[in-house]
């Protein structure tokens, strides 16, 4: 058990030297429906995941599956457009590759975006939630395995996974757009099945505000490695049993379509002001 470190070595060898010439000022992972959120002044590198050895193409609709290194307002940004998920059954390496790539590039700040189901009754589709903390309902995480140099201690502290300063940056970006956003707790489920209404009631009782199938593996890994993390969910649907109809990925993507301009603005504001 444990991740295969050679997987990351071959990615680092594959990426062009410019990726390692200076650390990126920030990195971003674009989740479902967030694919069009980047505003680049200049693009230095653009590589389809399918071309990166061992990684394979992003398989989920709404995920472009490309690595970008770009410049914006004098800053250098690493962007992972689309993610691989635990439920794809390809192991943790592909899931955490954005974080490990960022770590090897020397980056210190990471914004993880996703689409999530709304559990808190105050939430409706189209709302944004700044992650304050999470609940891992899956019971496993990418740190299981031998201790690896650079990946933090045997027992990483998880008291403040989502850095206060970066949460404040996201609040600032939202305020400038007149958006009302709450901070919330994200419940991570393995997927690919959506939750049952009974599960959603249970997650609600233990304090979850939103639910989704991503983000937590990356945030746990990044925080263990000492990278500052921010998480931003777009509520794409009401969670199972709260929604009056069965859930489907098309509904998730339709909600993100309506919010493209705001998503791009928030991401851009974050990477310029973090
Ligand atoms: N549940 C889990 N993951 C999700 C949901 C949901 O309702 N919406 C978007 N991602």
β content, as a range?
15-25%
Approximately how much helix is present in the residues? 25-40%
CATH superfamily: Nucleoside phosphorylase domain
Q: For the record, what CATH class applies?
A: Alpha Beta
**What's the shape?**
globular
Write the CATH fold name.
Answer: Rossmann fold
| Spatial gap, N to C terminus | 36 Å
Number of helices: 7
Specify the structural class.
alpha/beta
Number of domains: 1
> What are the segments in which pLDDT stays under 50 over at least 5 consecutive residues?
none
The hetero molecules present are: hypoxanthine
The pLDDT mean sits at 94
Alpha-carbon Rg, integer? 17 Å
How do you describe this structure in short?
With 274 residues, the protein is an alpha/beta fold. 28% of the residues lie in helices and 24% in strands.
């Amino acid at each position: 058990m444990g991740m295969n470190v050679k997987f990351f070595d071959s990615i680092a060898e594959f990426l062009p030297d410019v990726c390692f010439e200076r650390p990126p000022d920030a990195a971003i992972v674009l989740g479902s429906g967030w694919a069009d959120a980047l505003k680049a002044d200049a693009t230095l590198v653009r590589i389809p995941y399918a071309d990166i050895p061992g990684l394979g193409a992003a398989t989920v609709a709404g995920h472009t599956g490309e690595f970008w290194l770009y410049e914006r307002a004098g800053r250098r940004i690493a962007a992972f457009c689309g993610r691989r998920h635990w439920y794809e059954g390809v192991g943790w390496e592909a899931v955490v590759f954005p974080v490990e790539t960022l770590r090897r590039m020397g980056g210190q700040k990471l914004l993880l975006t996703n689409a999530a189901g709304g559990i808190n009754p105050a939430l409706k589709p189209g709302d944004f939630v700044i992650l304050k903390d999470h609940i891992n309902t899956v019971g496993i995480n990418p740190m299981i395995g031998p201790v690896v140099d650079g990946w933090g201690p045997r027992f990483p502290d998880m008291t403040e996974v989502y850095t206060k300063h970066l949460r404040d940056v996201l609040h600032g970006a939202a305020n400038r757009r007149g958006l009302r956003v709450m901070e919330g707790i994200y419940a991570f489920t393995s997927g690919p099945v959506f939750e049952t209404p009974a599960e959603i009631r249970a997650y609600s009782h233990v304090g979850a505000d939103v639910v989704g199938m991503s983000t937590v593996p990356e945030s746990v890994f990044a925080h263990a490695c000492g990278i500052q993390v921010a998480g931003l969910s777009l509520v794409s649907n009401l969670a199972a049993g709260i929604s009056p109809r069965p859930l489907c990925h098309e509904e998730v993507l339709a909600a993100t379509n309506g919010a493209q301009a705001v998503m791009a603005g928030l991401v851009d504001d974050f990477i310029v002001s973090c």
